[in-house]
Amino acid sequence: MHRDLGIINDPVLLFGGPYSNLHALQALLAVATRLGIAGRQMICTGDVVAYGGAPRETVAAIRRCGATVVAGNCEKQLARRAPDCGCGFEEGSACDLLSLGWYPFADRQIDAKARAWMGACPDIVSFRHQGARYAVIHGGLTDIARFIWPNSPDAVLQAEWAEIEDEIGPVDHVVAGHCGLAFLRDTPRGSWINPGVIGLPPNDGRQQTRYGILDGGEVQIHRLSYDAEAACDAMRAGGLTQGYDTALLSGYWPSEDVLPAALRGPSLASG
């Protein structure tokens, strides 16, 4: 499903992965209020629900704010009442095993109305900003759970770009999420933009998460500070103590094995 948002020449707030982290989402919405950014100017790359302690409340908050949400694999799976998150993790990896804790918790929290809303989220969103056309997806269009990293081969990005244009016509830039790391990458076709996620730090040893602001045709990545201790407490109160709770405080993922070797540990600490 494709949703065209038309022309948005005012600043656009781009973000991904609230991950059931209500405290991070509330901090982001405070940023939007301070900057005068309305819901129509906010686009999420998906996975509203995942690791955190407040899935129901996070869905309610993002629906109230009026942001456009691209369907992530978590939205797809919860909408169809699937037994797992469909994140694309290798079987037996830390991510795969840890999902056995947080996914059933989230599944129990999401009601029928929220699932129906998730099922109606578009697979791809487009809009025009300052004369350029942008497409927004979750992971890849060939595979919603495809991990596209800052160092993925050019051919990977080009294959996804071609798939997007086959679906909705020419685009100048692509916005995507899923991998959890913010990055901007120039390609022969245009910019590939991942604004990062707000619900979990990017494995860099800091509590701050990431979001992007598109303004005047340029994207800048920003750090988001929020009450990580309170978000951690909410997870622990829900019995979510498999490791993502401590990640909110330490800034390091318990599932680092999902990352390419070159992006693990201290290699991100200066980002």
UniProtKB/TrEMBL annotation:
One of its GO terms (cellular component) is cytoplasm. One of its GO terms (molecular function) is phosphatase activity. PANTHER family: BLL5683 PROTEIN (PTHR42850:SF2), METALLOPHOSPHOESTERASE (PTHR42850). InterPro entries: Ap4A_hydrolase, Calcineurin-like_PHP, Pesterase_MJ0912. Residues 20-187 form the Calcineurin-like phosphoesterase domain. Pfam families: Metallophos (PF00149). This is Metallophosphoesterase. The lineage of its organism: Bacteria, Pseudomonadati, Pseudomonadota, Alphaproteobacteria, Rhodobacterales. It comes from the Bacteria. It comes from Roseobacter insulae.
